[in-house]
Amino acid sequence: MSSHLSADHPAAQPPGPGSVEALISQARRLRGDVDAVRRDSQGDGTDPHGRWQRALYDLALHQLSDLDAHLAQLRDGPAPAPRPGSLLSRVGSAEWNLLTDEAEWSGELFQILGRDPAALPLSLDEFPSLVLTEDRPKLTAMVTDCLVDGRPIDGEFRVVRPDGTVRTVHMMGEPVLDADGSTASMWAVLRDVSALRRSQRAVSETRDSFRHRPRAADTGQRPAAGPREAVPPPWHGLLRFPDRGRPGLDLAAGYLPAEAGPSRISVWYDACPLTGDETLLSVGELPCAEGDPAQGPAMVIGALRGLATAGVRPAGLPDRLARSLRSTALPPVRGAVYCGYRPDSRTVTCAHADGPAPLLFRDGTGHAPAWQAETTLEAGDLLLVHNGGLVPAERRRLLALAPRLSKTSSARDVLRIVSEGTGRSLRREDACVLVARVTRK
Description:
Beta-Lactamase; disordered N terminus; about 25% strand
């Protein structure tokens, strides 16, 4: 079956090298101009408006860098791999023949969907089996409009990869007509836009946070978060939480401020590599000290990442971290929990001398287990690591939400439900939660 993007369709050929080179030059000049404006207008980034500006500039620069990479692909041909950190993955293509029920996928599409390139591509009737149940009607409507009414496809839906991760895919396509004007096949291009949508949501959330909360300088109080949102903590601009998760884990984390008022503690959460594919999950808190409220948690996270890189196991972290921080002006950490996860055996070790034990959700039931030296988890398990800011009543609420949490398809959805299910009015101190969803790999 010939591809719609082959020489049989000259209208689909890319523009000549000269015009592409001109577009690349324009994109690079624009990227340089945006970067220059960003540097000239850079403030200290500590106020909500400054954080919103920084997030928006970063998103614009990411998108312009990706535009440059895609234009370079038009000039040079398909790249062997997407640019690390790219917001837009490589583009995959597919064509479904309606007469023979055959399908033809590009190698990039197999990679986007996480499927074995040696496997047969799915037919048009089989393809919806990859899509989240709630998004299948949207896909069906787009395909029907394309095949029956000849409308082009341009929409997004979420797919579940074989490892259990959920990705957002943007699909564009159109019908291919035969000599009689009848629809013979349907072709489409698809790209993974998950990282792009996360970046856009972060900008939107930061903007809304700025719009709807009073400035601390005007009220003498911290801006209060609503009961349905987990917001980025003050240090988020200094040390980022890994957006792409870790091997064997789908991750999400959030900061849940208490009622508006002077902050009494600073909280942190982090996920970083231990040995090989192992991951260290940590949460904790610091009594507030003088100075930048973001500096203390950032220093703690930096120290933890250094100790983890040096091979210190979770059980040894409380003592080693305390020794590392003695030379600083920071107060001792408290309410800390350290969990080491090995994806090959799905085992987790937890150290929480003065912090609350993580919650475990499995098969629709919530547990507050007495963690052993080493515990084996199962695919689909949810581990909720939190600091002492979540009061007992909130933890009981979360355990009662176990059936709903177990039906979610991503750690981000779990975090949203956790944010909705906790009560800010119950909480006197800031809280942070880290959700780790065990995937099949």
